[in-house]
User: Which sequence fits this backbone?
């Protein structure tokens, strides 16, 4: 099997459980959420980018990767609104913490970036079995001057997971092989 089985890291904490019941108004996070979400009470990619940039999540002085924000919203958008509601936002918090801990465990010198080899090791530890060629292509795509920042790392993790899930759904025999029609292939790739 070329990819992590049985749900991969999405079966970790924060996934699968029913979103917290009760009244969101009583949740201390709710005011913070509303402050980011603005009038419509939903967080879109621009709002999420602003929030994560202000929280210093991108490291350095650049804004948080907007592509990563879009990917994260799409990943957690259970009610298909295209934006992030309160429960989805809380799930994101859990996922972000997991990625951050994972990222920092590879960032030995605490520079806020990891190198290509470390990214490849991280992907391996998530269960992805990829050829050196595939790993090199990923590293090239997500690094800047050989270094990978946290937000680029997230973009990479979310995308490889989403594409793997899409592939796995079509790989009914679980053999790591699928026949794609051109139009279907484009739909899969372009919607992520
Ligand atoms: Ca909003
Ligand atoms: Ca939503």
Assistant:
């Amino acid at each position: 099997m070329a990819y992590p089985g049985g749900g991969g890291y999405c079966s970790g904490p924060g996934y699968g459980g029913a979103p917290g019941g009760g009244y969101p108004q009583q949740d201390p996070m709710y005011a913070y959420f509303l402050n980011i979400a603005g009038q419509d009470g939903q967080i879109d990619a621009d709002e999420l980018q602003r929030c994560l940039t202000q929280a210093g999540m991108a490291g350095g002085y650049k804004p948080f990767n907007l592509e990563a924000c879009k990917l994260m919203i799409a990943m957690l958008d259970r009610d298909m609104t295209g934006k992030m509601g309160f429960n989805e936002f809380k799930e994101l918090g859990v996922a972000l913490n997991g990625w951050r801990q994972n990222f920092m465990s590879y960032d030995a010198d605490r520079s806020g970036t990891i190198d290509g080899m470390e990214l490849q090791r991280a992907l391996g530890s998530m269960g992805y079995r990829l050829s050196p060629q595939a790993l090199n292509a990923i590293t090239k795509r997500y690094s800047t001057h050989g270094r990978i920042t946290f937000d680029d790392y997230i973009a990479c993790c979310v995308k490889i997971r989403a594409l793997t899930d899409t592939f796995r759904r079509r790989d009914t025999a679980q053999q790591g092989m699928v026949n794609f029609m051109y139009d279907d292939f484009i739909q899969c790739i372009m919607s992520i």
About this structure: The chain has eight helices and two strands. The pocket of calcium ion (ligand 2) is lined by residues 77, 79, 81, 83-85, 88 (CB under 6 Å). Confidence is low (pLDDT under 50) at residues 5-19.
